[in-house]
Design goal:
The chain is an alpha+beta fold and 176 residues long. The chain has two domains: 14-76, Arc Repressor Mutant, subunit A (Orthogonal Bundle); 88-167, Glutaredoxin, CATH 3.40.30. The protein is 41% helix and 10% strand. The chain has a four-stranded mixed beta sheet with strand order 2-1-3-4, with helices on one face.
Length: 176
């Protein structure tokens, strides 16, 4: 199996460093590791929604922890991307409740509409589709997360509209 090597700029801009410092201020100085999750979110947001090994090493250096401690977290949680992703990443919940209510079918439909397989990104870099574990919205199944927002009670028609809205630039990804 061939493994792709992706190159990423690992610059920590003054703005990002200010954000990291602000996050670190919420924790005792000798417990920087406690800020790992929010720091990873800030770093990923500042680097095109993904984190390379080199960037994970940089986070470890900033937090004064070992690189393996960062790798363990990034590889465990699906909210951290280890390769470039589309601007719009459809994260379909595939656990029991969503599965029973047709999440697999909805993910398959989205992939078919976009011409990709799960885990892939469209050639234009606009869309990615991935399956994730529980997003905690069982009562709204089938559902997916798109940026910071949930898209619930999915149907083929709703997915068509979401894709059209993304293509038209009408979708807000972050609640900031």
């Amino acid at each position: 199996m061939e493994t792709k090597k992706y190159k990423q700029n690992i610059t920590i801009t003054p703005e990002l460093q200010q954000r990291i410092d602000e996050l670190l201020s919420h924790y005792p100085a000798d417990k920087k590791k406690s800020a790992l999750l929010p720091v990873l979110h800030a770093v990923q947001d500042a680097h095109d929604n993904w984190i390379s090994v080199e960037l994970m090493d940089k986070v470890a250096e900033i937090l004064e922890i070992s690189s393996i401690e960062v790798y363990e977290v990034v590889t465990f949680y699906t909210m951290y991307n280890q390769k470039p992703m589309g601007k719009y990443t459809f994260e379909f919940c595939l656990t029991s409740c969503c599965g029973i209510r047709g999440a697999d079918d909805m993910m398959e439909y989205a992939c078919e509409k976009l011409g990709i397989k799960p885990g892939e990104t469209t050639p234009d870099g606009l869309f990615s589709v991935v399956g994730v574990q529980c997003l905690g919205a069982c009562g709204y199944a089938p559902m997916m997360q798109l940026g910071d927002f949930y898209k619930e009670h999915l149907t083929a028609e709703k997915i068509d509209q979401i894709i059209d809205d993304c293509k038209a630039g009408k979708v807000i990804l972050h609640d900031k």
